[in-house]
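Technical note accompanying the year-one report. For the benefit of new consortium partners, we illustrate the data format agreed upon in the data management plan: each record pairs a sequence with a structure-token string. No post-processing was applied to the example shown here.
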Amino acid sequence: MTEVRLFATCLAEQFFPAAVSASERLLTDLKLKVKPLNKALCCGQAPFNEGLRDDALELARRFLKAGEPGIPIVVPSGSCASMLKIFYADLLAEEPALRARAGAIRPWIFELSQFLVNVLKVKYVGARYEHRVAYHPSCHLMRELRVREEPRLLLSQVAGLQLVDFRNPEECCGFGGMFAVKFPHISTAMAEDKIARLVESGADTLVANDCGCLMQLGGLIHRQGLGIAVRHLAEILVAR
């Protein structure tokens, strides 16, 4: 394997460009030829969750046209990878041609940590990050993709990094896409609970694989003035 496509995702491109550039650098350092999936703007998860199927379908068409079977598509987001691999089956149920195309591409779609550990068989990437790090496992990453240990394995191999545990790590951060907009008080309360446990752990850095989670928790951390860094996993793996 020498070539991969990087699907940056709309949320990362808009709010976490450092995660995109770190993902590209990480894959390039592993001697892969990385090409962006430029014509795929978004996986369509937001309109799909809101019942806007026509809008979601248009985005799915763009993605499926941009990708092709046989070349891995790496996604630095458990949520978006879940949409592509799991929920397209529902979205495309009445679109036989698109459904067939999605079925052919699906085996070639990988979340970043999943690709590194399970496909490339890589755990150590030469990173150094001398901090106390807490890892937040996002809901879609765990429950839809069944990716649990891969991010922790990668973090455990980072020189100088102390991986700290905190209570109830698998509880949702409260983002949930439009859930945070429709139910802001519940969403904020869930994030506050999570951050209280994070502070209790003594971590100085929070790491996750989903930009939605990073935006949700990072925004509240900033408003509370806690001084805890918020980083995407890829940023840690290219730290030197």
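Partners are asked to follow this layout when depositing records. Residues 3-119 form one domain.
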